[in-house]
């Protein structure tokens, strides 16, 4: 009974996290040209269940979300922000820089379209 009490304390909302993740995964769709990185742990021969055994290939399904998505595979364990702090920081900064470039390119395209629409409207 003790473990269920501990679970309730950690999961105050009583959410079924597996169901939530499954729903999000099965209903995923492209988000556009948004930079993203999936950092995945490869458990090698140290896997404990099917999800860990197929973790690298399983998480590649997230790469369909954006043509700018990429996967980085580590072998340091599940808690990557702690075990790979430098890598995590570098990737966050890389994604932010790429997002700025993507946004700037989008703004240029929108600005060009806007000028073109104003020019066309002035001619009619």
Your description of this structure?
The protein is mainly alpha-helical and 124 residues long. Helices cover 57% and strands 10% of the residues. The chain has six helices and two strands; from the N terminus they run H-H-E-H-H-E-H-H. The protein has helices at residues 2-10, 17-26, 50-53, 55-59, 80-83, 85-123; strands spanning 36-41, 69-74. A two-stranded parallel sheet has the order 1-2. The N and C termini lie far apart (77 Å). Residues 1-5 have low confidence and may be disordered.
Percent of residues in beta strands: 5-15%
Total strand count, please? 2
Q: Supply the helix-strand structural class.
A: mainly alpha
SSE series = HHEHHEHH
Largest sheet: 2 strands, parallel
**What distance lies between the first and last C-alpha atoms, to the nearest angstrom?**
77 Å
Low-confidence stretches at least 5 residues in length (pLDDT < 50)? 1-5
Shape: globular
The overall pLDDT, averaged over residues, is: 81
- Using the CA coordinates, give the radius of gyration: 21 Å
DSSP helix count?
6
Q: How would you write the strand order of the largest sheet?
A: 1-2
Q: Approximately how much helix is present in the residues?
A: 55-70%
């Amino acid at each position: 009974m003790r473990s269920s009490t501990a679970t309730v304390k950690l999961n105050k909302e009583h959410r079924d996290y597996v169901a939530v993740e499954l729903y999000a995964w099965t209903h995923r769709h492209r988000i556009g040209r948004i930079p993203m990185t999936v950092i995945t742990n490869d458990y090698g021969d140290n896997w404990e269940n099917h999800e860990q055994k197929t973790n690298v290939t399983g998480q590649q399904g997230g790469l369909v979300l954006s043509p700018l998505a990429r996967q980085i595979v580590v072998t340091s364990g599940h808690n990557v922000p702690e075990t790979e702090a430098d890598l995590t920081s570098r990737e966050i900064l890389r994604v932010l820089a790429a997002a700025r470039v993507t946004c700037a390119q989008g703004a240029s395209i929108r600005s060009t379209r806007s000028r073109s629409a104003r020019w066309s409207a002035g001619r009619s």
